[in-house]
Amino acid sequence: MSALQLFDQLDEEVRLALKNVGCLLDNNTMITALSRGLSNHNYLIATETGKWVLRLNSAASNGICDRNAELANWRLAQSADVAPKLLFNSTNNQCYLSEYIEHSTDWSVLMCANRAHPLIDCFEPWPEAEQYLLNLLNTLSSLPLPINQMSLPQQWHEYRQALTQHSRQQACHLNIVQRQLWQTRFKVLMAQSDKIEQLLVLLQACMLGPQYSHRDLNPHNLLFKNKLWCIDYEYACSSHPLVDLASVLATHRLSTSQRHTLISRYLEHNPNLTSDALKAVPAAIEIYWYFGCCWGLLMAISHHSDMDSNTSSENNDDDTLTRTDNFESFTHHSFDAYLNCFDDFIALID
User: Fold this and answer.
1) Which end of the chain is more exposed for a tag (fewer CB within 10 A), N or C?
2) Residue 181: phi, psi to the nearest 5?
3) Taking 50 as the threshold, does the pLDDT of residue 310 lie above it?
4) pLDDT higher than 90, residue 319
């Protein structure tokens, strides 16, 4: 997709925002897809005068995300200098423009998937990674409490309620096979309800109070430039103090020594946790993966079928936009991709 093709498909409000920050699109502009996740879609716009990130929010994530809260929590993190500067958000909150952090090394090389009790690992792919992560965790935990609150029991209740409602409905955009695949996984998750409730009781017992929580500090949401910066605040809220630590431990390749150091130093000075919170860390990691399963099922049911995706791709030569009001046509993720996420996540739970 060329810069001019992108420009032609943007609302006048967004075009004006680009011009106001000095981002003038022409045939020499380079546009590169940055998205590696399955929710929203980020593009690096590089001109002779600077670099910016244009983010297009997906319709599926709109259904499970409060965009106003996302922006407020992004700005809280920005005030602590751990988030890129937000330069513009469209009136409908479907498009964001932010500064580009020219990171020196790709932090996502640490991406992995860990169980609550991983095997002993002596290899350190990134020396001192635990200190950078600790600094970020402590900075985020010290931010003012977000207005939007979401306790872990409340999150589970809302996920279960939404999924149960979908299970009783016939999603017209899914074919019979897709509905069966979705229902099978829904039943697998619901069979784990008693265990999830037990984990939540254990976690609530070690919490003295909530704190600012990003809730998805996986390596793809972190940038390294002298320190760690984080992006994607759509699930940030006031929540349990172990949530962010758990997301780091679940998704980062760290040595056993680095993990132990990070856990002990984080727990040592956290005022929102009891002195015996260590025993609840494995539970927090498992809840992270359980909630990931819920997310995968919700995203799958909220998206178009694979047939719609394939049709869109076939009619989308050179990644150009075919609909001016919907960027999903060229940034689509398939139904199967979300179910694969569910399968990967559920396999990590002991």
Assistant:
1) C
2) -60, -40
3) no
4) no
For residue 163, give Cα distances in angstroms to 40, 293, 318, 345, 350.
21, 11, 37, 17, 22
The SS3 of residue 55 is strand
| Phi, psi (deg, nearest 5) at residue 95 | -140, 130
Query: 29: which residues sit within 8 A by CB, 6+ positions away?
Result: 3, 45, 46, 47
Residue 149: count other Cβ atoms within 10 Å of its Cβ.
13
Cα separation, 12 vs 30, whole angstroms: 21
CA nearest to 152, candidates 104, 213, 220, 81? 213
Please give the Cα distance from 210 to 230 (Å, whole number). 20
CA separation for the pair 266, 131 (Å, rounded):
10
- Quickly count: other Cβ atoms within 10 Å of residue 63's Cβ: 12
pLDDT in tens, 173-183: 889 999 999 99
Distance (Å) of CA 218 to CA 211, 215, 228, 302: 19, 9, 12, 23
Neighbours of 283 (CB within 10 A): 23
* Closest to 286 (Cα-Cα) out of 349, 220, 200: 349
In the chain, alpha helices (H): 3-9, 12-20, 59-62, 67-79, 129-141, 152-167, 176-190, 193-205, 243-251, 256-268, 281-302, 306-314, 335-346
